[in-house]
Amino acid sequence: MEICKKHSIPNSTLPTILKDREKLQKARDDSKFRPTTKKTKLCSHEELEDAVFAWFCQAMAMNVPLSGPVVRGKAAEIAQLMNFNFTPTPGWVEKFKQRKTKKKKINK
């Protein structure tokens, strides 16, 4: 596999890339990943993140100070309202910030 050698990737990686080609291209086109992203795991409840982000934008527009725990609490509340079995963690808040915010600010 000359392509693997040329790009310094394991031989097992190329078939995975080819198999997931459409999914990877869509994620790239939707700007869901930064160029440095190595894994393509998406949020399991995208509707939940959209709802949390809508709340987040409203809170920011009203100059409400937002911390990680505040965002986690609201995400848990919204998840319960949407009947999702979801417990937001500090790691989820960090990934949420990476996925949803570019210029918005969430304090730790």
Automatic annotation (TrEMBL):
Keywords annotated in UniProt: DNA-binding
Alphabetized Gene3D superfamilies for the sequence: Homeodomain-like (1.10.10.60)
SMART domains, per database record: CENPB
Molecular function via GO: DNA binding
GO cellular component, one term: nucleus
Matching InterPro entries: CenT-Element_Derived, Homeodomain-like_sf, HTH_CenpB_DNA-bd_dom
Segments forming a coiled coil: none
HTH CENPB-type domain segment(s): 36-106
UniProt keyword annotation of DNA-binding present: yes
Protein name: Tigger transposable element-derived protein 4-like protein
Organism of provenance: Elysia marginata
Species lineage: Eukaryota, Metazoa, Spiralia, Lophotrochozoa, Mollusca
